[in-house]
Design goal:
The complex is a heterodimer of chains A (337) and B (329).
Chain A: E1 4-19, E2 24-40, E3 44-48, H1 55-62, E4 70-75, E5 78-79, H2 85-91, E6 95-98, H3 112-122, H4 128-142, H5 158-170, E7 176-180, H6 188-205, E8 208-213, H7 216-222, E9 225-230, E10 233-239, H8 240-245, H9 250-258, E11 308-311, E12 314-316, H10 323-336
Parallel strand pairs in A: 3-8, 3-9, 6-7, 7-8
Antiparallel strand pairs in A: 1-2, 1-4, 4-5, 9-10, 10-12, 11-12
Helix pairs in contact in A: 3-4, 4-5, 5-6
Chain B: E1 6-17, E2 20-32, E3 37-41, H1 48-55, E4 64-73, E5 76-77, H2 83-89, E6 94-97, H3 101-104, H4 111-123, H5 127-140, H6 146-149, H7 159-171, E7 177-181, H8 189-206, E8 209-214, H9 217-223, E9 226-231, E10 234-240, H10 241-246, H11 251-258, H12 298-302, E11 308-311, E12 314-316, H13 325-328
Parallel strand pairs in B: 3-8, 3-9, 6-7, 7-8
Antiparallel strand pairs in B: 1-2, 1-4, 4-5, 9-10, 10-12, 11-12
Pfam family, one (chain B): oligo_HPY
Subcellular location (chain B): Cell membrane
Organism (chain B): Paenibacillus jilunlii
Chain lengths: 337, 329
Amino acid sequence: MKDSLLEVKNLKKYYPVNKGFFNKTQAYIKAVDDISFAVRKGETFGLVGESGCGKSTAGRSLLRLIEPTAGEVWFEDRDITKLSMEEMRKHRREMQIVFQDPFSSLDPRNTVQRILEEPMIVHGAGNAKERRAAVERLADVVGLAKAQLQRYPHQFSGGQRQRIGIARALALQPKLIIADEPVSALDVSIQSQVINLMQDLQQEFGLTYIFIAHDLSVVKHICDRVAVMYLGRIVEITDKNKLYDQPQHPYTQALLSAVPEPDPDIRKERVILQGEVPSPANAPVGCAFNTRCPRVMDVCRSTRPALLETGPGHLTACHLYNGEDRTHLYKMNLKDS
Amino acid sequence: MVQPILKVEELHTHFFTERGEVPAVDGVDLYINPGEVLGVVGESGCGKSVTSLSILKLVPNPPGKIVSGRILLKGQDIVPLKEKEMRSIRGGAVSMIFQEPMTSLNPLFTVGQQIIETVRLHRGLSKKDARTHAVDMLRKVGIPRPEAIIGEYPHQLSGGMRQRVMIAMSISCSPELLIADEPTTALDVTIQAQILDLIRKLNEEQGTAVMLITHDLGVVAEMCQRVAVMYAGKVVEEGSVRDIFKNPLHPYTRGLIQSVPRMGETRERLYSIPGNVPILSKELQGCRFAPRCSHVMELCRQSLPQLKLQEDNHSCRCWLHDSQQEDAV
């Protein structure tokens, strides 16, 4: 895609499981198992899924905060997985991250002033005076008072700390911000303040966001396109209206139907999934969702479905929509009989 | 008029800390009718959890203490009851499930031992009968292979399973009231749907009254018949779930409902309530929401409005809806 800022190709992150006397690698936990997607300039790309689906690992692998096992991450015109550590460090100016927990992601022994200044010092941006001016500008942008800059993180509420986290991510004027569950630790009324702030900043600075979250209503509000993950794999990618109006993958359908709506008049036809997410150390053969899928077929237990185009701008990894694979199996069955 | 199973009147639970007295629950009035699901909503620090802990007298003392008020359980005030008498109520007529099932189950005992202990204590069953009962309970909450699970320790189970075990334990003595404090907050949506479905079935089939404490308005809309909205230690609005969502009166309730993104609609911007929740102290004056309220009047800053019945079973604590506004001035 020519207008894409970030392209991820076959990204994998496997963690070895060591057991036994010789600590031999027995198996791999496939936290991120071969995912590909592209993020366009200026859009908000959502990465959703339940806990343990690999969405946070994926987010961190993109910045190489976690070193990916395999795959390529193209940012602008460079594959950043091939960069040396030193080059990568310079490159992170352009890509920043906002963490979920505003309590543990800010150094408690530094003042806000210092927290916001630090990225600029590390990357050698400006002299002391310029940096101070930049910090004041940042504070103003995210809605903190100048007087609050000399305070320590514990003196702020959760919402204010998340504002500090966002200001820090903005300090080096990045192009891409990966926001890992930025509002899930916050109360409803504070959550909407932070969401609005993020949208304003996107407008003002032309930012591109990767928004990682489990709250589907929030994702629907803020994102342009959404990828749904299950057990380390992407099962569906499309723009948000298509995803919410015509979800194709049975997992997406169940996930959307499980969200309680804040309206007593809406009574949804609910798909309640049986069982739980299998352990990623022991993922099912074939489609990862086959153990819980209400529409499971034989082919799902043997062949992993590829993420294929099932409509304009709509990619789904499911045998139900995957004509090619079915004919392939049909042929196999014929041969057997 | 049915007698409510639980009626809380002017409950004050304060914490005595080094920084002074904190009125976490500051005059709460609530009632739950038999077989009803009451939602208690509010943001962190609004006192919803302390209210529920007060009902079972589980507030750690010190620093916390029920300073005044009455808690009527089927007409009997339980505030003056002794610890020993409370023990027969907890897990018997009233039981409770918590947000984090890992911390509320004992890690040193198997799931079975914990349920059996409850049943034997309250029902005086023999060991064998109690065990059979425990297996039945686990089956009822949808745990697969209950005969095997009964011998497992809490850490061997997933979050959703642990919450099922908690529910099995809490319903093992057929309580008349189940207090569920954020029962699904730690769970994923698909597991949340399973647990909510289970609580709903319990309510419909056994007629157990449920007090559901949550911050998730979606869960409230889906589960509850009546809702109490709390802010800064007080109930600010109370009414049927339809009234609360379709015709909210208090500016805080309105702001709260408007600030939640919904799946069924597209909006450019979310409404947001400016400012933060106040730090609770005895010095607070006037309406607690006044500093953040868009309709604030001079009166609101000076004098605290009362929770007043507006129309059919819909009450609100706001000067805008109080006919005695002029008198108060």
